[in-house]
Fold:
Amino acid sequence: MAMRLALSPILASPPRLPHTSRFHTFPTLYTHPHAPRILSFGILPSIALRLGPLPSFLSDLWDSLLRAVPKKKTSHRKKRQRFLAGKALKDVTSLNKCSACGNSKQYLTTHTIDNAHITDIFSLAVTPHQIISASGSSDIKIYSTSEPDFPLAQTLDAAHKLGVHHLAASKDGHHFASAGFAGDVKLWRSEEGQWMKKGDIVDGNKAGEIWAIAVSAEGQYLAATSVDGRINVWDNLGGCKKIREFETKGSFGMAIDLSVDGRYTASGHENGGVYIFNNDTGRLLHSLPGLIKAVRVVAFSSAGKLLAAAGDARVIALYDVASGEQVANLSGHGAWIFSLDWSDTGEFLLSGAYDGKAKVWSIDRRECVATHTETDKTLWSVKWLPKTGRNEGFATAGANRSISFYREATGG
Structure:
């Protein structure tokens, strides 16, 4: 009993004796639940009396052990209260955003026609129910867009001996034209669901003499650029006679388009020049500023109020047709831009570039809303597909010799 009383002060507070490293392993005796009972029997009295203060690292270790003790479990009610208070995890919305531009319009690849041609596919043209493709080979192929697997509907064998570099189709879907590397331009008409050759554009053509082509909405007129910068217009329904010839500064005409209403012709040139001509008066309407590098594509909007132009500058310039004023620059491509196409409503602009990237641009927001890369090879041509329901879709083709089809990820 006397020994128990003598040791009780030692258990209550550590003795303040000189510290000896030899006994570093024994401080646990003070906190062990059986320590009082062990010491009360006199087993380690001498050791207990010689121990000094607890080392600081052991004190820290003891605090860590206390903090590691499991805490009281949070109830479902508490979790719910925290959620309602805004402390829960936020919704992840980045899954619905374009990885390249950070915006929210998404398209999914629905089908790819591999090896659609044996060489680069240089041009696509779209009608209400078909998509037409042409390449460096002599054949022209027509695929149906009315079926989900886009089956081959017709092949125009040996259409151009040296291959085709441009196609252009009328909005009504009854006419299209093809321009070959040999300088030959051919006109085609749909009759009972099959395409038949209707005629040729003959103008002393030489290889490269006629380059880019465009066809009016009803198929009556065809416009083409030339290597010396001239812009020529033919009447397809009037015996393929040339009815207009516009002069520019003589730079190679690389791109051309006709407005839907047929009032205007626009051309893009190697020296960066962009021109708009009035087809009614036969005069130059605007010589447009803004691009100093080669312009490879021009495109009128569906309503004919805007003109888009792009090329080696890697920027898409938007112009007001009536005033000739440049109203916007769409930046985001990192390579030459080869193809542009407006959606039917004019809300979106589709572009394809040398690095294989296809972009969709919102005209209202003046920014990219979707970027897709099916391949790292050149996209020579991109086209919107006929709209089905609320869904929009487009097709791309180029140096990988395949045609890829996309549909919007949302909509009915």
